[in-house]
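Retro notes
What went well: the complex prediction finally ran end to end.
Inputs used:
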Amino acid sequence: MEILCVFCFALVFGVSLDTMDQSRKRKFSPVWDHFDLITENKVKCRICSQELSYINRSTSTMLRHYRARHEKEEQVNSPVINTGASRKQAIDEAIVNMIIKDCQPLSLVEDEGFKELLQLLEPSYVLPSRKPIKTMINQKYEEKKEQVKKELLR
Ligand SMILES: [Zn+2]
């Protein structure tokens, strides 16, 4: 399947880029690791199941809840939050986002300069090859498509 960049996608489906951008921000705000959206204006904490209101797409209530209730616990239980697998995942995701957002070719992951930059920033990180990156982009595309469909049907 041909991959559309989000901007072409927005054009084709007539979705405002503003909406796309907000949903992208929403999606990648780290606080979403701890909350699920249960209705349009309600979220549920994954750690303690408490429901919070979600207004104007603002994550501040969630952040406050998380910081007040869970941040300390998590630091005690897992002092290595941003290392290892989750760190790799975060970088993978950032690269996928970069490819989508900046309309970069998949061959980006084979570019010497890009590799050197990553090596400098994160010596332990190993870049995925084209194939897994392509799979991740396809997944994002499908997610985005579903999301846009829902918004259009609303
Ligand atoms: Zn909670």
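What we learned: Strands lie at 35-39, 42-45, 51-53.
What to try next: split runs per interface for comparison.
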